[in-house]
Amino acid sequence: MNEFRLVCSITKLNFLGWKKNSRIMLAFVLAFVFCVMMSAKAIMFARTYETTMQIFEPFVWAFSGGESILLASFLLIFFFMDMPFLNEATPYYLMRSGRKAWMGAQILYIVTVTFLYMFFVLVMFCILCAPLSFVGNMWSETGALLGYSGVGEDIALPASVKTMEMSKPYQCMAEIFLLMTLYTLLTATIMMIFNLLKNQFGGVLSVFILNLYGLLLNPEIIGRILDIPQILQYKSNVITGWISPLNHATYYMHNFGYDLLPRLWHSYLILGLWILLNIFIIRKLARRYQFVFS
Predict the structure, then answer these.
(1) Cα(53)–Cα(142) distance, integer angstroms
(2) How far apart are CA 59 and CA 71, in angstroms?
(3) Would the N or C end of the chain have less CB density within 10 A of its end CB?
(4) What is the pTM of this model?
(5) 245, 263, 239: which is closest to 184 by C-alpha?
């Protein structure tokens, strides 16, 4: 119990570093700008056709593609760039609690910040679209128009018919929120590993490589690069759906009962186990981390 209090105390100290921190303020400003950009087309479309939206629909549409997931995860760099956090209180906590509690606090901070960041993004989408939205658990006429008429593809608002037929807005929002949280947490833990192994630049580079790997394993890009015939494109979709962490975080790249793509629980399990493995590696690396205090 005493060790848990120390972990919480160190975590609180990390959050106190947010005060007057320009980098953290910039991260939230950029996250808000991201929400404005991703919701603008939905708002303009609804106003043009004088229709309403379910309040979570813009969030669902925004994260229907891998590119938006990449942009959202990149902003986490601002929060975790200087991990592990070293300050004037670090020697005291290391002497009193040891490396185990100190690293436990770093992990708790990563998990908490990732959840807060995703919750902030969700709330911003809801606030921006609230004047044109309703809260009922049903898909709107805007979503039906975008999905069934093909207009969504023309204006880059991918309202998936499969999504609307297989789920309800609240369920879909919760599933996408969990997938996004797991993917961003995976990104953050990988960044922490390379921060400990190399340096801050190594951590940033690892995030870039992970996202580039996911982007290049997009089924459409793979098909164009390898000139895969249309008859074999399905196999390419299935393979990339299983081996790409970005595709695991993309809602429509899942099996809803009639294909061989991973099911949602498969992605939850794979991403969750990968995160736990990263945490185990972080704890191992912390035992031989060389502290440098100036």
Answers:
(1) 6
(2) 14
(3) C
(4) 0.83
(5) 245
